[in-house]
Inverse folding.
């Protein structure tokens, strides 16, 4: 099945550092979503993006819908230990009734 | 109240058995989905339903049969379980086909 290219695959960072990750697609999307998943739980929606160029924040998280509509970016500022988890991007196009997911970025924060 | 709830959370069973997972959403959404997450954490769509009608069957074997008795429920029945079916199965829902997607907590299936 189709998956989006998400990078980096994993990151080990110090507490207080900023984090950036991105997602690219070969297809144009109408919607980009960003999720965080912790062990034993389902993915939790962090940010939703609906327009090319849109920049949206949720606390220390900021995500952008790429101008080409084929990519999206997530930044986490001043990371804390509870940011640990797997971050996924997802995209969809109107009428397809499916969200394609990225391969995930595994984030570990060292205190 | 849990928005998307699925049961059971864990299933352990023998090869060849049949099992079912139930999903309910109380968000008033029109579209529901089943996703499979493998051991590498890849999330892949299996099925999507809109207003109880099957929209997407993403080349899933016939042994998997989803059923949507109403807009708020989407169940998954699996026949003749195989070792490769071991995974975490997630139910999800969205208001429209491009709106926010909300997941349940997952059902971890282990086939021995």
């Amino acid at each position: 099945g189709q998956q989006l290219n998400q990078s980096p695959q994993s990151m080990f960072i110090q507490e207080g550092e900023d984090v950036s990750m991105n997602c690219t697609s070969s297809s144009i999307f109408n919607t980009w979503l960003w999720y965080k998943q912790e062990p034993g739980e389902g993915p939790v929606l962090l940010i939703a993006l609906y327009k090319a160029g849109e920049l949206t924040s949720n606390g220390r998280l900021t995500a952008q819908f790429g101008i080409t509509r084929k990519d999206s970016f997530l930044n986490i500022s001043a990371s804390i230990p509870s940011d640990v988890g797997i971050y996924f991007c997802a995209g969809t196009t109107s009428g397809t009734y499916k969200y394609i997911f990225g391969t995930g970025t595994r984030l570990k924060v060292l205190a | 109240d849990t928005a998307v709830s699925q049961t059971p959370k864990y299933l352990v069973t023998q090869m060849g058995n049949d099992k079912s997972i139930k999903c309910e959403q109380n968000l008033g959404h029109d579209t529901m989905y089943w996703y499979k997450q493998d051991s590498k954490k890849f999330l892949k769509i299996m099925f999507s339903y809109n207003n109880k009608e099957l929209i997407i069957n993403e080349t899933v074997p016939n042994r998997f049969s989803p059923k949507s008795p109403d807009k708020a429920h989407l169940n998954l029945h699996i026949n003749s379980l195989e070792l490769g079916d071991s995974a975490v199965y997630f139910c999800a829902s969205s208001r429209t086909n491009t709106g926010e997607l909300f997941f349940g907590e997952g059902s971890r299936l282990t086939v021995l």
